[in-house]
Structure formats: C-alpha cells, structure tokens
Amino acid sequence: MTKKIVFGNFKGGVGKTTNSVMSAYELANKGYKTLVCDLDPQSNSTQLLRRTYGLQNGKELKINKTMMVAIQEGNIEPAVVNIMDNLDLLPSYQDFTNYPDFLEQKFLPTEPGYKEKRNAYFDQLLKSFQEKYDYIILDVPPTLSIFTDAALYTTDYVVVVLQTQQRSLDGAEAFFEYLQRFYDTYENTDFDVAGVLPVLLKNDAGVDNSILKEANEIFGKDMIFNNIVKHMERLKRYDRLGISEKGKTEKWDFHDTKLHEKYSNLTSEIIERTED
C-alpha cells in the first residue's frame, strides 16, 4: 500500500527540501519504488534531482511536460520523469504559480463545498496512479497556501522539519497547530504526524541543545526522531551539484559514505514510524 509523506514547517530555509529529497533517495536505494512530488513553485526539489540526474548520467534531464500543463489536461502521470532506479519525480516549474488561479476558475465560490474540492483536486489526480509506488514524498513551500493544503489533503503522514533555531521552532509549533485545524476541518483527511525531525545548525552547540530540549518539552520525547540530521558540509555540495552515488560519480569519499549511512538510518526510522 502506498504511503504518502509531507515534509513541512512554516519557516523557510530549515532543510525541508534537502531532507525530503535525501529521504526519498535512500528509500529508493533500499528498493522502495518512490515518487517525489514537488508542490513548491520554487521548484527546489526538482532542481536538486535534475542536478542529481545530470551528475550521475552526464546529460541533462529532459522534461517534456510541466506538472501545471498536465494538471490542466487532467492527467499528471505523463509529467512524471525517472531519475534513477526506483526514484521518479513529478517536477515543478515556474508555471505552477498558476495553480491557485486554475482552481479558482475550476471550482467557483458559488459551488457547494468549493474549498474542499480545490484541496482535493490534486489528490484525485494522484490517486489514478499512486499505487505504482511504495512511498510518495511531497515537498511543499513554507507557507499557508493551497500548495500545502493540497499536500495535506492527500498525505498519510507528516514529518515536521525542525532546524535548531528559534524561528524554526516557532514555525514548527505554528505548523503543528495548523495541522490540527486542517484535520478537524476536512472529514476526508486522515494523516498522522510521524515525528519532528531535528536539523542541527551546529553540532553540539549550546543554542542547538537548548532548542532540542525545548522541542522535547513541547512535542514530547517520543515525537522527536532518534536520528538527528547533524550539520554536514557535504550536503551543501549535493544541493549545488547533485547527490553523489558510489560507482556513478567520480567524486566520492568517506564524507559521502558517512552522509549516506546517516540518511539510510533516518529512512529506516521513517519506515518504522510509518508502519500501519
């Protein structure tokens, strides 16, 4: 059965996209058929995976149809592109900013239940082929928007990404509160919070430890992931050049080995936390 997971926070720049893509990447390496849905018009997940494809294949990834065009045609499956074994991408592009206008025209305010129909539209399109995948990872913008609502309407689980800074903690709390309101508002939604994923700004720094302690008090110890994403410079290179893979890319050293091991452990915990 397909499991859909949203990575989110109402604070930008917390590593949400990096961690959602790295988790999807390691799920694919474990043999799970995985799809990344980039529901952010900024297209950060798409850019990272395009760079990854280029790095590992020595050629540019061809995207013949944008997701927005596919949505307008009523069938998003033809927009899906393959990145590597077990990993596909539903790519975003700048024209995805038109999605709210598209929904406003399709479901008019005079129509009963128009708000829910707008939120449910992407879910309906995804359901037509989602069973092809074991996991679907949904990356969303750090805002209260129809993009986020569409992801929450279709998802089964939410991972709250918490960078160890005060604004990120505030954003995580606000996101938690919004999740509860959203869940209570729409009867057809049914998701659980898989946990809060801490992302350290600095390893073993006083502020980071203080934020982690406060997060444990606010959300509960069991809600905090055991696998914490520590500050690793190699992630910056992946964001810029794409994800390195042993045997597929020339640049590979013990830093890459360590990073992939950490994310392999993280995805194992994600699998455990999303077991039915």
TrEMBL record:
Domain AAA, residue spans: 3-189
CDD domains in alphabetical order: ParAB_family
InterPro entries attached to this UniProt entry: AAA_dom, DNA_Partitioning_ATPase, P-loop_NTPase
Family annotation (PANTHER family): COBYRINIC ACID AC-DIAMIDE SYNTHASE (PTHR13696:SF99), P-LOOP CONTAINING NUCLEOSIDE TRIPHOSPHATE HYDROLASE (PTHR13696)
Top-rank taxon, per record: Bacteria
Keywords (A to Z) from UniProt: Plasmid
Gene3D superfamilies per the UniProt record, alphabetical: P-loop containing nucleotide triphosphate hydrolases
SUPFAM superfamilies named among the record's database cross-references: P-loop containing nucleoside triphosphate hydrolases
Entry keyword rRNA processing: no
Listed name of the protein: AAA family ATPase
